[in-house]
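Thought: the user wants the 3D structure for the chain below. I'll pass the sequence to the structure tool as-is, report back what it returns, then summarize two notable features.
Action: structure_tool
Action Input:
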Amino acid sequence: MTQPPPLCQIAFSVIDLERTHRWYQDVLGFLPSGGTRLFRGPLASRVQGLPNAASTCWWLMDQQDFFQLELFEFSSPRARPRPPGWRPCDIGYTIVGLHVADFDAMLARTNAAGVRPLTDPVGGPGHRRVCIRDPEGVLLELMEDDPRAPGPARRPRPDVPVATRSITLSVPDLERSRRFFVDTIGLEPAGSTELHRPEHEALWGLPGAKRRSSLLWAGDWLIELAQYTDPVGKPWPDGYRISDHGLLNIALGFRSKAAFDSTYERALAAGHRGNWRPLNLGAWAVVYVNDDQGFSVELLFVRPWYDRPMGFRPPPAIVARTRIAAPRERVWQHLTDHEGMAAWSPFRKVTLARSGSPERDGFGAVRRMQGPGLDLEEEVVGWQPPARYDYRLRRGAPIRHHAGCVLLREDGAVTEVEWITRFRPLVPGTGAIVRAALKRGISDMLERLKRKLEAVP
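Observation:
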């Protein structure tokens, strides 16, 4: 048996791609990582098992490598809406679990965006959970705790405030699902790891529900199989297609073509069918396999050097660092005094266009920064004093999807400051030039702040 494949995609069929893609960035902090309009025509129809398949697909990434949310907007076949009265015990992919870097800060972000939790949080300090719905109605569980596999994978993007941790399937027969995912696909039982307890059922609207479940590791991600006995879930809707509105499938990722091939051969030997034979394009290969209970599971092989075209690499980060011989609280005070930025930045004038809450310079604050040829507005979208704040550009620069994170760490009597920003250029081919200019500008600002704070009174 080869190494168990990791979860590498959770795919959604959405009605409004632009709105949903923007929401995951602005509200939850995911990073855009490209997209494609190539999933259309006879090959796409064969792979996805859909008549006259045509879709636009955009990707999003979190803290983790080789993982993405995949948003499809189908122009053919049109997505049918979720059946009236749908419940998370009904058969299908149901709940996505997200670990958030700061639970309270994330609740403040969602509340500011008009997104209300379905219930009050459940759990004690460090273990709180709450459920929200995305703009398409998909259930998202926000987790304060962070379940990890033994030997957890490295997370290379600490500036991103979210990491996808789990996907739940409501299945008609738990034993058959276990045979498919464990015996055929090769996932590993999660042993003593606990994801959900009975009291969590209230989070998604099923208080007192009874179910049997099995928890599996897919790399450093959890796949939860749940068979509800009370209430019993409704079966797949008549004529269901994966293009229908909601979560459509997951993908398990491979870096070895031999492992991809052997997993597919095991699926065939166990009696599971693919929509079509594997599509092998050299740099990547894909096949959609269907288990014996109607679930679509994609097997995806990608050579690491082809990650960017496949949406597994977000915009490059600009990282500037400095070490300041001053207490962290003092450094924080100066970094977050927006109107005081004029003393150590190239901006001649910085004003608050909108005050934050509860601190004036905190969450929700909008700063307007004016300087030679510049008139920018940035909004504070994350606030964790005295360790971190996050912001995003609202207007004023020839770039898009620009977001930043400022981290402060104590090292004895010294404060380490790390400033991380990402963006997408408006004009193709200008990214390297803009990144170089931004890094130089941020590094210069941090050097001026350092000199200011270390100056002898």
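Final Answer: Structure generated. The chain has two domains: 7-306, 318-454. The longest strand covers residues 399-411.
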